[in-house]
């Protein structure tokens, strides 16, 4: 069969192979197929074949578009499985408070933090929110991300939570990046429920979840299970109700204190538990037994200046699948770049670039339920890939703070050319 598009003379082509059914765990993490002087053939938006240049000729016909990638790395597009994509209200002005030593949860308790962004988001129209989300999706795409998860959680009323999810849908409809939506109504207790948090939990269960389900606006339901935010018991109530509506489950778990979020994720059969800086050994073992993916967010501890690290060694030892994400949000991780996350993965988590790539592609695809079509370059899967201005995978993780994504392809279509959007 002839290719529509053939990338030739690739300096280094790296992808996982054979993990579309289940994520890489333990010593499997970072097992990649790596080719030098390689080709990648694309047909009808999907990968047709890949391998050494000696096998490329058979795919080249008169109408095949050929792109030369001499000296360059070609990697699967990143799958970013944890982002707070839709919001209005950045919070650079809170830097001073942070530098003065005020902890994150105290900033929130004083009515700032998440609640600052809630105020601005409530005032924004769906059109404004969609325009802001589109701009963010553009930046993600420019940095090599081709699929993202997107949470609500800055509305905290039924109407404004729906508005955020609708904005994500509108932005995604006109954008090459695939968006998987998550309802995160349980992100903070809004000021009007400060004295009656249980009533807010009731509102989420009785009004928000049915409304989101009725409009089919989200695949996942997530809860910020944290001291002073939603307790384990409240999180369990919300997530059990979500399950009954057919949502798959996620959890912001053990991010700032050890509360038992990891165990709860395992108990409820969640797809992923995210953050996990303070997850206990029992929690990690329970996650392994239940097959819950750990989504680690090193950009968040970086932004929070937290010396705490998730117990990566215990996760690998126990067989918990590890994924990586940005946690893109205006409070704890204002970056769209999964390239930076590759750097933080070795800097702060001790992962190799190969482990980080697997955690940011196939395992992160599993964390949002899209590994059947995204997360690796294998025959029949979507041709979502990036040509880097870098000779190899290691270089992408090593040369940090700049954007090395030169050309980005989504389902075989070029959407970034020479570092500029072209879709
Ligand atoms: O994942 N922890 C809760 N949610 C986000 C932060 C949101 C914000 O500060 O705006 C997080 O860290
Ligand atoms: Fe988050």
Provide a descriptive summary of the structure in words.
By secondary structure, this protein is α/β, with parallel strands linked by helices. The chain is 35% helix and 23% strand. The chain has helices at residues 95-99, 104-109, 114-123, 126-142, 158-173, 197-214, 232-244, 261-268, 281-290, 298-304, 312-318, 338-349, 353-360, 362-367, 393-398, and strands at residues 5-15, 33-43, 46-52, 65-68, 73-76, 78-80, 145-151, 178-186, 220-225, 248-253, 272-275, 293-296, 322-324, 385-388, 405-410, 413-417, 420-421. α4 crosses α5 (158-173), α5 runs parallel beside α6 (197-214) and α8 (261-268) runs parallel beside α9 (281-290). The model has no long low-confidence stretch (mean pLDDT 97). Fe (iii) ion binds at residues 82, 84, 252, 327, 329.
Salient structural properties:
423 residues; alpha/beta; 8-stranded parallel beta sheet; 23% strand; binds N-(iminomethyl)-L-glutamic acid; binds fe (iii) ion
Shape: globular
Name the bound molecules. N-(iminomethyl)-L-glutamic acid, fe (iii) ion
Terminus-to-terminus distance: 27 Å
If you compute it from the alpha carbons, what radius of gyration comes out, rounded to the nearest whole angstrom? 21 Å
Strand percentage, roughly?
15-25%
| Mean of pLDDT | 97
Estimated helix fraction: 25-40%
Uncertain runs are: none
Structural class: alpha/beta
Number of H/I helices: 15
| Major sheet attributes | 9 strands, mixed
Count the beta strands.
17
